[in-house]
Write a structure and sequence with these properties.
Length: about 800
Amino acid sequence: MAKIKPNNFLDTVDSVFNDAKKQGILHLYAEGDRFTGRHIRIGDKDLFHFGTTGYLGLEQDPRLKKAAVDAINRYGTQFPLSKTYISHPLYKTLEDKVTEMYSSPVIITKNSTLGHIGVIPSAVDDQDAIILDHQVHWSVQSAAKLLKSRSIPIDMIRHNNLEMLEDRIRKLSSKHKKIWYMADGVYSMFGDVSPVMELMELCNKYPQLHLYFDDVHGMSWIGKNGTGYVLDILKELPEQVLLFGTLSKTFGASGSLLTCSNRKMYAKIKNFGGPLTFSAQLEPASVAAAIASADIHLTPEIYSLQADLMERVKYFNMLLSESGLPLVEQNNSPVFYIGTGMPVTGYNFVNRMMKEGYFVNLGLFPAVPVKNTGVRITISRHNQKEEIKGLVEAMQYHYPRALEATNTTDKTVRSAFKLAVIEKGKIDTKTKIALNVQYANSIFKIPKNEWDALLGKYGIFDWEGLRFLEAVFSKNKKKEENWKFHYYIVRDLLDKPILATFFTYSLWKDDMLAVESVSQKVEEMRKQHPYHMTSHVLGMGSLFTEGKHLYLDTSHPLWHEALLQLLDELEKLDRKFNAKMLVFRDFIKDEKLNEFFHNHGFITVSMPDSSKISNLNWKDNTTYISNLSKRSRSHFRKDIEPYIERFKVVVTDKILPNQHNNFYDLMENVRQNNLGLNTFPFPKKIFKIMSDHTGWEFIILSLKAAFAKDGRELVVGVMFCYKNIDNAYVPAFIGMDYEYAKVHQVYRQLLYQTIKRAGETGFEKIPFGMTSAFEKRKLGAMTISQIAYVQSKDNFNLELVGMLGNSS
């Protein structure tokens, strides 16, 4: 029944990147007629370059340049033949030299992305399984997901979590020939590394375990012959390890490589590796430059270059340790990450650094969680000590000012990255316009008339509706049935309300808005582990309510400050509860709000369409039908009118005790059959509280005896309706017997009877809520596209749900 439009990950990324482009952070163009590596020219200004991945500076080495030019003059700009048939003359030389570097055979690939697409499907058999590190490079994840079409299971663990990895290995080991764990050697954002030796210990403990490392960011600047971080730890390449390196980035040329000591597997991959077979081979210039770089890697000169770089890295580390800046990961890699928390702070900080004369990169979603935005700095041999010192001094000056300008604090940033809070140099004061905030943890603490004037007209969250919800979702045995309510009203100094809303802290299913096929898989897992993939969420409104949960007077000059004040209050609440996500929901897209939420660490998520009738103006059944569109009238006469006489319709404001179990089962039928909006069941006491509350009434649909299978009248559907103070009739939830639902058009009858009841009792508005918008539209409802803004502390559960959604 519920047709949920899936969230488009690319749309979310597109909106984040568009914001960054507007801020002058992404999709820039370098200028000038030459490039040295030390400077980069942007906007007619030469900036010191702290964003390169050419850590050793070999891309500017005269020997590599000369080799590339000579190769073009001798062989042309490309060698347009498949490498499967014939390689151009320089290829064998390169392969021999790189093989000598690694002491294992190598396969040269066009680039790492194509390389992974070629290697992973060849190396992984149908009897195998894959476990991905949450932060393994996108190119590895993308290639691995191709194997879902072969029904190869793919799981994911939290970053570098060996306990979680071992648990997954144990679960997979009885069913699979090999278990592949895929990770980076050095991770490209934070510069942290894989626990290589601990992983090898797991390989010894579990012989099925094989390791697949993408070490392109560990290449050249460390290790014997510059063969990278992983091999520097391992010394020799074991047969159960596949290792990816690069001929670009620090190596200074172009292309990537796989090395593998297992000769049988090596031959299998080389014989037919997808893009390795069908893609164009490297250009002669790239191969020649790589040969020149390999010559350097095979001489003691590589160690001098490594030492030269490491001197700069240690110097930068020393300056940062004295700076008070929030360095997320401290190690000896040339990659550094200074946290800014919110994107808006990152935009401000990066722009300040560029004006000061320093180019640095911004780490953004999806590479990092939105709330973990930060400045990614790379150190290379191009950087001199004086500009490294100048960079740190500029960051020390501009970081606190970027915090202040964007209404955040050092403490907030450090909390987002789970860093220790330091007192020295900390700025926790904010320049804010004074606003008054009223907070309450129960609707009983807020005057009824005031609340209803602000938010009472939108659904089941007028004052009386919230009194009902607080009674239902408290003092229950199950944790998912206990919600904490938090109410906020923000006023100006003249006591005029600018903003009002409420949030609930409750347990959500991570797959709540996933496609039904994903929820079906997760529900199978929950049969053994009921709380698998669930998270506590601080969400606007509640999982029982739908509609405009935020009163915001955007005509007030301080509405922006009021929203900031609300975020501050929610941050305090979050520190107490440590929710996994913060959710603002049920919005119609607005550019100003969109920019605000994106800047403050939220991503946009599409919600199921909502439906409503805004002006019913009921006179009689005939008039109602005549006001429908021609197609809707046809639908009514075909799918609704012929079935009306099959049912006995009773409207009551009481549910008898002997009806409770039956009605609960009917409601559970609908919930379990509509996993596109996957939530926990409600407490069974809900019907008694509904029955005792003056705002509720119930439309009970009984199939007449003549149409029932056993010849007895049978309740086959119930609509649970709330009468809002603002003349809105709210069909909140529905229950149905699916044995009869399709044959007798029970759902459509309940929709029609709801409209009829609302009209006959003088209600003008029917907020139908989410899901099944097509069915409601056929009965005269208007469809409304809605979005939510989500701020997650990490991307793991979101990406795990997305990975399940890509299953075959």
